[in-house]
Amino acid sequence: MPLSTITGIGHYVPKNIVTNKDLMEVMETSDEWIRERSGIEERRYIDRTKETTTSLAVEASLNAIKDAGIDKNDIDFIIFATLSPDYYFPGAGVLLQRELGIAGTEIAALDIRAQCSGFVYGLATADNFIKAGTYKKILLVGAEVHSVGLDFTTRGRNVSVLFGDGAGAVIVEATEDESHAVLATSMHSDGTYAEKLAYMYPGAHGGYFLDKYAIEGFDVDYNLENTPYGGVFWNQDMLDKARIFPHMEGQAVFKMAVTKFPEVIKETLEKAGLGVEDLDMLIPHQANLRINQFVQKLMGLRDDQVHNNIQKYGNTTAATIPICLNEAYREGRIKKGDTVVLAAFGAGFTWAAAVLKW
Ligand code: ACO
């Protein structure tokens, strides 16, 4: 049975740097609050006149394709993890295929909607398609644009200061070489917590879920009389309560994340026949430096065994792991033969991990 391995990696972030001080110009916040709670110092935002989620993904993909030394026309499958696709539909995968100039290959393009866990879900998917013998050269991308969908008033500051834009990509190929391969993957979810971290607008839920789960005392207007078969149900009450922006119960996310990270890391190492003592480098999702420091301490890992870069980019959801992995590799923090663990936790809740020999 073939194994899968990463043969090329690249990332791309927009040039435009937005510091904590810049955000203080548009909302009541402080550099100190943001750094202390999240570790974030700055993030990147796109130039809305010429960049989108897909365009960031194109740049990251071209870097990964070049790094792998392959011809883009030889890619046989695209997996695109994002929670901020350019269109509601069609998905981001087909847009990437077109913008890369490989639509003529007619290869399949799959979108993954697993939020911050999207890239690791994508790697698990690529790994299994390769093991099944279906594909041999997969382009896997995580890319996000958050800056166009955040509430930049003081009301939304608990969420908006945390997120940034960026993209990372890898080429996953078939190999027989166990010493440079994906050894194990795990994926999990628990939908009980769906509304703890969610962006419910525009959505296709017709208001029912808002009534049932989301918001106490929320006046949902189904607008049945005026438009019996559809129509806008987002009334002023909903807009005032800001449910047209991402909503997060930060402490619930924190609690669950620090529990699930160690669990899924240990589970996946065990599947690979390894233990925490074998781990050379952990690349955790970059949601919050405090979460990662908490997990590092819980697991007894040294500073040289964990790579973080949220300070520079904020949380780029599905893009954090490939960006962080690429930086750790380029900075020489990951060497050939190292046991590398990728671990993610995000909205859904979803969580996942992968163990690879680099
Ligand atoms: N600047 C200044 N003050 C702020 C800001 C801000 N940006 N945001 C919130 N505050 C204020 C609040 O208004 C509140 O003030 P009050 O006490 O006067 O009412 C106070 O700070 C505390 O607000 P909380 O929302 O309770 O803040 P908390 O202490 O929970 O910290 C944080 C927020 C950092 C998000 C924390 O909950 C956390 O680390 N959660 C983990 C979740 C996370 O990091 N998610 C990232 C994305 S999710 C993912 O990728 C998995």
TrEMBL record:
One Pfam family assigned to this protein is ACP_syn_III_C
Q: Which reaction does it catalyse?
A: malonyl-[ACP] + acetyl-CoA + H(+) = 3-oxobutanoyl-[ACP] + CO2 + CoA
Q: What is its main location?
A: cytoplasm
Compartments, as annotated in UniProt: Cytoplasm
Asked if Plastid is a keyword of the record, the answer is no
Write out the pathway annotation from the protein's UniProt entry: Lipid metabolism; fatty acid biosynthesis
Q: Which domain of life is it from?
A: Bacteria
Renumbered to this chain, region (ACP-binding) spans: 286-290
**Molecular function as annotated in GO:** beta-ketoacyl-acyl-carrier-protein synthase III activity
EC no.?
A: 2.3.1.180
User: Which residues are in the Beta-ketoacyl-[acyl-carrier-protein] synthase III N-terminal domain?
Assistant: 110-191
Query: Which residues are catalytic?
Result: C116, H285, N315
In this protein, which residues make up the domain named Beta-ketoacyl-[acyl-carrier-protein] synthase III C-terminal? Answer: 269-358
Which of UniProt's keywords are assigned here? Answer: Acyltransferase, Cytoplasm, Fatty acid biosynthesis, Fatty acid metabolism, Lipid biosynthesis, Lipid metabolism, Multifunctional enzyme, Transferase
Enzyme class comes to transferase
> What information about domains appears in the record's comments?
The last Arg residue of the ACP-binding site is essential for the weak association between ACP/AcpP and FabH.
Q: What does this protein do?
A: Catalyzes the condensation reaction of fatty acid synthesis by the addition to an acyl acceptor of two carbons from malonyl-ACP. Catalyzes the first condensation reaction which initiates fatty acid synthesis and may therefore play a role in governing the total rate of fatty acid production. Possesses both acetoacetyl-ACP synthase and acetyl transacylase activities. Its substrate specificity determines the biosynthesis of branched-chain and/or straight-chain of fatty acids.
How would you summarize the oligomeric state and partners of this protein?
Homodimer.
Matching HAMAP family: FabH (MF_01815)
Describe the family membership recorded for this protein in Swiss-Prot or TrEMBL.
Belongs to the thiolase-like superfamily. FabH family.
Q: What is the name listed in the Swiss-Prot or TrEMBL entry for this protein? A: Beta-ketoacyl-[acyl-carrier-protein] synthase III
Protein's organism: Neolewinella antarctica
> Quick one: which gene encodes this?
fabH
